[in-house]
Amino acid sequence: MRKHILFPSLAALALISACDTLHQLPVQINLPTVESNVPSQSEVASGLKEALINGISKGTGSLNKPGAFFQNAVRKILLPQEVRDLESKIRNNAVLNAAIGGQLDKAVKAMNDGAENAMGKAMPIFKDAVMNMSFSDAMGILRGGNGAATQYLKNTTSVALQQAFKPVIQQALNDVKITEYWNPIIREINKPLNKTLLGIKQDINPDLNAYVTEKASNALFQEIEQQENAIRANPVERGTALLKKVFDYADSQKK
Question: Is residue 22 part of a domain?
């Protein structure tokens, strides 16, 4: 009789022990991986660089076309102010207009052609500045709102850009033989008789290279800013998953 009682007791103990063991086993549940909507430092830097390179590429591309300056009322580079102030007097004087008027027209066309040609050589200058952008720069741009990226480019490239851009502009001006038009204009205006007719005392000698470089650079920054602001304002412009993640996060921080 005692053996019959012992066996059920041992069985019960074994069952209890097994249950305790089961309770001690770790429970593994396969949950779906949730990707963070917060971009990493690397993603922020890469996203901003991608956006800037895209904007620069579109900006230079839109201006590096025949007529992009000359046929655009907003972008067209006019004569330097010193000459423009005298233009009406030149046009209204038969002698001066015959000597200079046609050259003025050619100079305006050549300046705009030069700016258009130079745009094709501007990309490496800006790209170098973008690729050297730090994470703190990227975060400042991301949170800075409209124009922040363009302002970054202005702050970091303006001096170097002028130094690097001038030879490119000069070559572009040489390609369209600007000196054939510009130098005769200045020589004619600076002749004593013509200065008397125009009512000026000082010779005019504006630096045409610097003038065209400044105008071309300003136009390019304006184009880049338009592209930047389009990405910030319109989710459709965020053409890649990285751009979408970075700028969607920036949008969420505004709320």
Answer: no
Q: Confirm whether 190 is domain-assigned.
A: yes
In a domain, 47, yes or no: no
Burial 4-41 (b: 16+ CB within 10 A, else e): eeeeeeeeeeeeeeeeeeeeeeeeeeeeeeeeeeebee
Which of the residue ranges 26-35, 66-75, 99-108 would you say has the lowest mean pLDDT? 26-35
Residue 31 resides in a domain: no
Question: What one-character-per-residue DSSP string does 40-93 give?
Answer: PHHHHHHHHHHHHHHHHHHHHHHHSSTTTTTT-TTT-----HHHHHHHHHHHH-
Structural domain of 226? 59-254
Q: Compute, in degrees rounded to 10, the torsion defined by CA atoms 65, 71, 74, 76.
A: 80
pLDDT at 162 over 90: no
Give tens-digit pLDDT for 167-199: 877 887 788 777 787 888 888 888 998 888 888
The predicted-structure confidence for 84-105, as pLDDT tens digits, reads as follows 888 888 889 898 888 888 888 8
- Tell me how many domains the chain contains: 1
